[in-house]
Amino acid sequence: MEHNYARYCCVVIGQPSLNLPGAPRKVTDEHFVDLWTKLADHYKDNPNLIFELMNEPCGLSATIWAETMTKAIRGIQSKAPSHRILIAGPLAATVVTFELRSTPALLPLLDLATYPGQIIFGMHQYFDILNGGTKDCLTWILFEPFFKTATDNLRKHKATAMLTEFGGGPNDACAKIIDKMLTFFDANSDVWVGWTAWSNMYGDQVISRNSSSEYYALTKVMDKYAPLK
Question: Pfam families under this entry (predicted)?
Fold first, then answer.
């Protein structure tokens, strides 16, 4: 997975018109394809890997970004034709913005799959007013329509998705909304094939295995759906 928002040194991959004035270099689609082709060749013998092309692409043209990802997918398939590939749209690829900002440009990429389910949509979602996981979580009723719309659209196109980042603070509100979301995923497992929680070592975005920690609240919820052995 790349985690630079489709940029390298503030230069947008394949979209030079969006570069900051005076940017020292240009990063082309060919650079991006070369990277992923080499990674795919290196890891081609590990069938458990999923290649996530980019984490949280933002501030770019979804249509041009889809063209860039198309080239990268073909590069990966030339070396690791059976590996699954995660793709993501702009605006940090949130579930809330998926229908409006990602669907039109990204759905055609499903045709690149060599078998059903090879191309997976990666999305993120936080549940506070800033969509950053640092404020109090809101209620599921505000987000459920977006999850339902995305799910129905993906199912219509026989597509699958993973929520590759979510999280929240150590409080009941965040625990409740994540519980409802994971229940939703279980009920729609033909579309939602996986999820990954985000945790870091600062602020409130921490997940703890210590049952006496205040940060155990979210872990306890997630253990219901994916218990750690």
Answer: Cellulase
